Amino acid sequence: MPSLIRAQPFTSPVMLAVFGDEARLDAALRFESSLSQAQADVGVIDPPAAAQITATCLDHPDAETLAESAARRPAPPSQRPLR
């Protein structure tokens, strides 16, 4: 899956380290992990559920594998016009 950031001619290795696909995936999963912990702290979800979410976020595939897997799944009807 092409990345718009990598396709830009003015991208540097430093910018890719901050905004590349792997960095964005890592940031999103750290957010989800933190959110689950905060929700457990206030009783929205059970602590074991938060622990499972955090464990899943830590053990994730690389961005390319994730993108390839997502591309093979059929889109829900509401998203088909977007593909």
Q: Let me know the largest β-sheet.
A: none
Give the tally of β-strands.
0
Secondary structure: helix percent: 55-70%
State the secondary-structure class. mainly alpha
Could you tell me the mean pLDDT?
Answer: 83
* Strand percentage: under 5%
Radius of gyration: 16 Å
Written as H for each helix and E for each strand, in order along the chain, the element string is HHHHH
Low-confidence stretches: none
Q: How many angstroms does the end-to-end distance come to?
A: 13 Å
Q: Which geometry do the CA atoms define?
A: extended
Number of helices: 5
Describe the structure in your own words.
This protein is an all-alpha fold. Helix content is about 65%, strand content about 0%. The chain has 5 helices and no strands. The radius of gyration is 16 Å and the shape is extended. About 0% of the residues are buried.
Topology:
Blueprint lengths: L3 H4 L5 H7 L1 H21 L5 H12 L4 H10 L11
In short:
With 83 residues, the protein is an all-alpha fold. It contains five helices and no strands. The chain has helices spanning 4-7, 13-19, 21-41, 47-58, 63-72.
What key phrases describe this protein's structure?
83 residues; 5 helices; mainly alpha
